[in-house]
Every structure is written in C-alpha cells, then in structure tokens.
Write a structure and sequence with these properties.
about 240 residues, two-stranded antiparallel sheet, 10 helices
Length: about 240
C-alpha cells in the first residue's frame, strides 16, 4: 500500500476496507452516499494516498462518529469489526505489567501472537507467490499503456473463453472475491487492476457511484501467465 495521510482520531476509508474485507471503492461509494443524504462532511474529511503505481488516489478520513455512522449501514458482523478497531485505537496504550509474573506472561503472550502472525504472513506469501508471475515479465510484457475491461482482456489474450468464464476463473484462483466479480484489494494495490468510479448525480434522488473494473498492462501479463493465453499481436512477451 502506498503513502497515506494518517488519521489519529478515527480511521481512514482504507482501514475500513481492510477491517471489513470490502473493496475500498465500495467503502468510498458508501461514504459518498451518506454525504449525498446529508451526513456532515466534518465526519468524513477528504484526503489522499499514493498507490503502488505512484498515482494519487482519494480516501476519506473518518472521525470516530463518522465510523459509527458508516457502520450503522453495515450488517452486524461488519459493525462489530469497525467498533472493535475503534476500541483498539481509543485504548491506545497497553497495560503495563505490575509484577514479575505478569511481565513473564505478557512476554509469553506477545511471543505467541508474533508466532501466529508470522504463520499467517507465511501462508499469505506462499499463496501470492503461486499466483504472481515473474517480475520481469510483468514489468516489460507490454508496449502500450492502455487499460481494458475484462471482456476485452479475454479477447486480447486469446484465452479461448470469454468474459464470464474469465470472471469465474479469477474467482476460483483467489484473485477476485469468491462471491463477486471484483479483485481483492492486494491485487489492486499490486497494479494489476484499477477500479474506476464515477459519481452519478440525480435531481431529487440520492446520487450513486458506478464502478468499472479495468485490467492494466501488468494485469494482462498476469492473467496471461495464469491462464496461458496465446496473443498474436506482438504486444506480449513470452514467459521464460
């Protein structure tokens, strides 16, 4: 993840996306919908961060009240996750052990927590390594900087199947969420996909956000590596 403006009092929309497992684009959409319905802008400050491609992207800095307002529109599980994170942020300091036995127990608990976190990190790294193409291929595979939608990606790569099948395969290998046709945030951060948003304003009706998934040149190289496309236009280099 790129550089972002820290939010000491509440959470950023990126943090909300991480905690809830939602796409950042959808969290942004939800906040914009709240603002269009009259929510105070003082609880949702517009900021920015720098993504993996070095591009500046918008985010919202939520006050604690803003976090609760946003959470009120989510289901019970997501509300609980947001409130849990707020409690952690508000508690701030960890309890200082008062006795030697408490210090030993704290050290043991921290060691166990670090060990468990390391296992999770190793498992995630192993999964990502299996999915990620060679860096030199991903970085130098394409001549053009164009971005395309999923259907066009299948045609360009000559995968032998179309848009819907490509969506299905991306869900199956874990690049997209298993229950919807959207890339997981880490693949967006890696520069494989972009989520383009457009806020549609309507007279006398709440506005809404339209989101379109685009595949970058790096993403095309990635998909080609995963599913063995056979392009003939000379844009894609062979995998060594």
């Amino acid at each position: 993840m790129g550089n972002l403006i820290p939010n000491q009092k509440g959470m950023t929309s990126l943090e909300v996306a991480e905690v809830t497992g939602k796409q950042h684009a959808h969290v942004m959409r939800d906040i914009r919908n709240l603002l269009s319905q009259g929510a105070s802008k003082s609880n949702f400050g517009l900021g920015s961060y720098t993504d993996a491609n070095g591009q500046e992207r918008p985010l919202f800095n939520l006050s604690p009240k803003g976090c609760l307002i946003l959470a009120s529109g989510y289901d019970v599980v997501l509300r609980e996750k947001i409130i849990d994170r707020l409690e952690i942020l508000e508690s701030g300091k960890q309890k200082v052990p008062q006795t030697f036995s408490e210090a030993l127990q704290l050290a043991a608990d921290q060691a166990k927590q670090i060990e468990e976190q390391q296992k999770v990190i190793e498992q995630k790294d192993e999964k990502i390594t299996k999915l990620q193409p060679k860096a030199d291929f991903a970085d130098a595979a394409f001549i053009t900087d164009d971005k395309v939608d999923i259907g066009m990606a299948a045609k360009i790569l000559k995968l032998g199947f179309g848009r819907n099948t490509l969506f299905q395969k991306l869900r199956q290998v874990g690049v997209f969420f298993s229950n919807r046709n959207e890339p997981k945030q880490r693949f967006v951060n890696a520069g494989y996909f972009e989520m383009k948003e457009k806020f549609i304003e309507r007279n006398s009706h709440p506005g809404f956000v339209v989101t379109k998934i685009l595949v970058t040149q790096k993403g095309l190289a990635y998909i080609n590596h995963l599913f063995g496309g056979n392009p003939s236009d000379g844009k894609i280099a062979a995998i060594e």
